[in-house]
Write a structure and sequence with these properties.
The complex is a heterodimer.
Chain A (H helix, E strand, L loop, with lengths): L1 E6 L1 E3 L5 E2 L6 E2 L5 E3 L1 H17 L2 E7 L5 H9 L4 E5 L9 H13 L6 E5 L10 H9 L3 E11 L3 E8 L2 E8 L2 E5 L11 H9 L2 E4 L19 E6 L8 E2 L4 H12 L4
Parallel strand pairs in A: 1-6, 1-8, 6-7, 7-13, 8-12, 9-12
Antiparallel strand pairs in A: 2-5, 3-4, 9-10, 10-11
Helix pairs in contact in A: 2-5, 3-4
Chain B lengths: L1 E3 L9 H5 L5 E4 L2 E4 L8 H5 L5 E3 L16 E8 L2 E2 L2 H16 L3 E7 L5 H7 L4 E6 L8 H15 L3 E5 L4 H12 L3 E5 L1 E4 L6 E7 L4 E6 L6 E5 L16 E4 L4 H4 L3 E8 L12 E5 L8 H12 L2 E4 L1 H5 L20 E5 L5 H7 L4 E6 L6 H4 L2 E4 L2 H17 L1
Parallel strand pairs in B: 5-7, 5-9, 7-8, 8-15, 9-14, 10-14, 17-18, 17-19, 19-20, 20-21
Antiparallel strand pairs in B: 1-4, 2-3, 5-6, 11-12, 12-13
């Protein structure tokens, strides 16, 4: 069973915060990490491989330094890493990203399953997975919380819904996006780290994947950012004083509109 | 490409501070753009000398924009009920349609939808396309995607809105891909730009640390999923007139590669916390699973639902669907009461657009107090029972 995992390198959320004075993002020492949801997608792929045999290929689109997340993925059990990187991809929205990943996947050969995290924590769009499946013309399911069973032809999974979950069967090839409930990702093993160090990362440029220049990067993105601005500051904070009883009383006063 | 005019650049570093992606650096008194530039343009507005220029190639996505007209909202129907976000969509949809002087159309997909279509008219729809078919009882991405795509292609609306729900965020991106249309996820504000009628879509990014306004200048329809609980629904008008048109789906569109075997509705409490008006949320400060009894009691008193921080979901005290935050759900209730939650940035990302935030925490330095509108420092085991009593007292009086 051949599985492709799509991952993204994102800034670590705990480091990204607004400087309260300047209202700009303070990013001293912001570290890059593998998108947390993608870690769960990778873990599920490695588990499926361990059960069914086959190979796990991890792919990312990003700047050259995104190679780090591919090596991390290999240290956690992936077999191959593919970096899709080109200045021409800068400014890609989800439509252009899905297009680019699809073109890249088409150069890689046969696969049974594509796994993605539900969304990336920097953009929070959850749109690339479904978009990629549409481009590959394969069925997809989002927010998978559990793989119940798998055989050579299909999977039965639980997919999270707003009111509970659906149990769904889908045949291969298919694309799933996963939520963090699906598994507990492993940490890299020493052997894995050694393997990752030596692994050769395949690099694909816009030309390598024969991307149409007008469908990638900013020119290929149907959405464009008009402006970026800090969120509206929250109103004045009410500070209560007195004993706990007095404070509770003051709080109930404030909560009256909601009672 | 983002270009820097070295003649004009004064090396002030303001662009460096503005860049959310750490892509600009001032080196030897001149700004230099790095690889992580996403061409968002935040730096350009900030540059007083006007040294930054964004060159945009138009690409070939241009379509015949003016031939697309009308505002559509997708109305979600599942388990015999309409998702409440559908009414909120009709509210914002009506506003946008009036501004554009075009009709508002609702699209209803499902099985045994009964009188729902008439209700949609009462809430603002001028036309309802109703696709009522037994095969649509369960949600499947591909059937929903194909049916709605076909309708959009035929009628060419300029704007298509759907709820940012599990269903909306799953199949709407598929439609945007097949239509080569721009789609903005999880919008919290939608406006029409006066001079050209473009839809301006605003959404939080970086867990709400920055807001971005997005447009679709070259493609139609302009598509957006909209966060539940943010838009206001219209008052229901039983006398409102509108047309309900039944659509028989194409046999091809009903073929599916996905088979729903079973639907399991969560037993313990409401897990659809994105649609809740009031949420009582518990964190590590509860100290044990039993702590949630207190949270549930307060929730009952306030007619609220129960949410949680990541730490307690990971500890197994409450199931994942209740988790609020970066790797859980993003909620925007009218009132969010955080009990024993320290307020890590990952948690705050999921709840900071609540209308009012109350924090109860033992540690007065907990970051949750930075986002809270009202806070009490102290032991929640003491405070919550007192709060319940006081609320009940007030209700009786």
């Amino acid at each position: 069973m051949n599985i492709v995992v799509c991952v993204k390198q994102v800034p670590d959320a705990k480091d990204v915060r607004l400087d309260p004075k300047t209202n700009t993002l303070a990013r001293e020492g912001v570290e890059s990490i593998m998108n947390p949801y993608d870690q769960h997608a990778l873990e599920e792929a490695v588990r499926l491989k361990e059960e069914m045999g086959g190979e796990v290929t991890v792919i990312t689109m990003g700047p050259p330094q995104a190679e780090e997340v591919l090596r991390l993925a290999i240290s956690c059990g992936a077999d191959k890493g593919v970096l899709v990187s080109d200045r021409a991809f800068a400014g890609s929205d989800t439509w252009a990203t899905a297009y680019t990943l699809a073109k890249a996947l088409n150069t890689l050969g046969k696969y049974d399953l594509i796994l993605c995290g539900k969304q990336a924590i920097d953009g929070d769009t959850a749109q690339v997975g479904p978009g990629l499946a549409m481009r590959m013309d394969i069925p997809y399911l989002t927010c998978v919380q559990k793989v119940r069973s798998v055989d050579g032809n299909s999977l039965v999974v639980e997919r999270m819904m707003d009111d509970g979950y659906d149990v769904v069967e889908v045949g291969f090839p298919a694309l799933l996006t996963v939520v963090k409930d699906i598994n507990e990702p492993r940490v890299p093993s020493l052997k894995g780290k050694m393997k990752a160090k030596k692994a050769e990362i395949k690099k694909l440029s816009a030309e390598d994947i024969q991307a149409d220049p007008s469908s990638i990067g900013l020119p290929g993105s149907p959405t464009q950012v008009v402006k970026v601005f800090p969120p509206m500051p929250r109103g004045e904070r009410a500070v209560f004083s007195g004993t706990i009883d007095e404070q509770v009383e003051q709080l109930v006063e404030k909560l009256k509109p909601y009672l | 490409m983002l270009k820097i005019n070295n003649e004009l650049c004064i090396g002030c570093g303001i662009c460096e501070d503005q860049c959310a992606f750490a892509a600009i650096e001032v080196i030897d008194g001149l700004a230099v753009v790095g690889d992580s530039c996403t061409l968002c343009g935040a730096c350009i507005d900030a540059c007083e000398p006007g040294a930054l220029i964004l060159e945009i190639d138009d690409g070939n996505l241009k379509t015949d924009l003016d031939s697309w007209s009308g505002v559509w909202v997708f109305c979600e129907f599942r388990q015999g009920a309409l998702a409440t976000v559908s009414l909120e969509l009709l509210g914002i949809g009506k506003k946008l349609a009036d501004q554009r002087r075009v009709p508002l159309t609702a699209v209803l997909l499902g099985s045994n939808t009964g009188k729902i279509a008439d209700q949609l008219v009462g809430y603002g729809a001028d036309t309802v396309y109703r696709v009522d078919h037994p095969e649509l009882e369960m949600f499947t991405e591909d059937r929903y995607e194909k049916i709605l795509t076909r309708l959009i292609k035929k009628h060419r609306p300029e704007i298509v809105l759907a709820g940012a729900t599990a269903i909306g965020r799953s199949f709407i991106p598929g439609i945007a891909t097949s239509l080569d249309a721009g789609l903005t996820a999880d919008c919290t504000s939608l406006e029409i730009r006066e001079n050209d009628g473009a839809l301006l879509q605003t959404r939080p990014a970086f867990g709400g640390n920055i807001m971005a306004t997005i447009e679709c200048p070259r493609s139609r329809p302009q598509m957006a999923t909209v966060r539940p609980k943010v838009m206001k629904e219209n008052d229901f008008d039983a006398d409102r007139k509108g047309e309900v048109i039944d659509i028989l789906p194409d046999e091809k569109d009903l073929r599916s590669r996905i088979k729903v075997l079973e639907t399991v509705i969560a037993k313990q409490g409401n897990v659809n916390i994105q649609e809740s008006d009031i949420l009582i949320s518990g964190g590590r400060g509860l100290e044990s699973e039993k702590g949630f009894e207190l949270i549930r009691k307060l929730a009952e008193t306030l007619n609220a639902d129960v949410a949680a921080s990541r730490a307690v979901v990971d500890a197994g005290w409450i199931p994942y669907p209740h988790q609020v935050g970066q790797t859980g759900k993003t909620v925007a209730p009218k009132l969010y009461v955080a009990c024993g939650i320290s307020g890590a940035v990952q948690h705050v990302a999921g709840m900071q657009s609540a209308e009012a935030i109350v924090a109860i925490n033992r540690d007065e330095n907990a970051p949750i107090f930075d986002v809270a509108d009202f806070g009490i420092v102290g032991d929640l085991n003491e405070i919550i029972p007192k709060l319940i009593n006081k609320i009940e007292e007030y209700r009786r009086s």
